[in-house]
Amino acid sequence: MSDTAADGGWVPTLPVEEIDSEFPSMVTADGVEMVLCRSDGGFFALGNICSHAYARLSDGHTEGNQVFCPIHMGSFDIRTGEAIASPCYEPIATYPTRVDGGIVFVCPVANPPKS
Ligand code: FES
């Protein structure tokens, strides 16, 4: 069985009311660790490990469309995984999300990198 979003490989994570707009949550789907963020634009899943020095972004916080690393305060765009603030320069993977029945589902197959 395939685990792609196109084939329905969605994994349930948390109820929407448990996902805070300031403090993201760590979730795992098929062994892939992600940080789940909430903004006015919806729910977004990214790789949980900072591309600077391997801190867990789920220990950081979110402001608008950015998630901030807890160690050196670098940040990433939660919609695209793009590195925004120094000392982060390398992007991180993003993953598809959808909401069904009040639950946020993620797909453990990363979105294609933005060019
Ligand atoms: S470990 Fe994330 S900014 Fe340094």
TrEMBL record:
<feature type="domain" description="Rieske">
    <location>
        <begin position="10"/>
        <end position="106"/>
    </location>
</feature>
<dbReference type="InterPro" id="IPR036922">
    <property type="entry name" value="Rieske_2Fe-2S_sf"/>
</dbReference>
<protein>
    <recommendedName>
        <fullName>Rieske domain-containing protein</fullName>
    </recommendedName>
</protein>
<keyword id="KW-0411">Iron-sulfur</keyword>
<keyword id="KW-0001">2Fe-2S</keyword>
<dbReference type="InterPro" id="IPR017941">
    <property type="entry name" value="Rieske_2Fe-2S"/>
</dbReference>
<dbReference type="GO" id="GO:0051537">
    <property type="term" value="F:2 iron, 2 sulfur cluster binding"/>
</dbReference>
<dbReference type="GO" id="GO:0046872">
    <property type="term" value="F:metal ion binding"/>
</dbReference>
<keyword id="KW-0479">Metal-binding</keyword>
<keyword id="KW-0408">Iron</keyword>
<dbReference type="Pfam" id="PF00355">
    <property type="entry name" value="Rieske"/>
</dbReference>
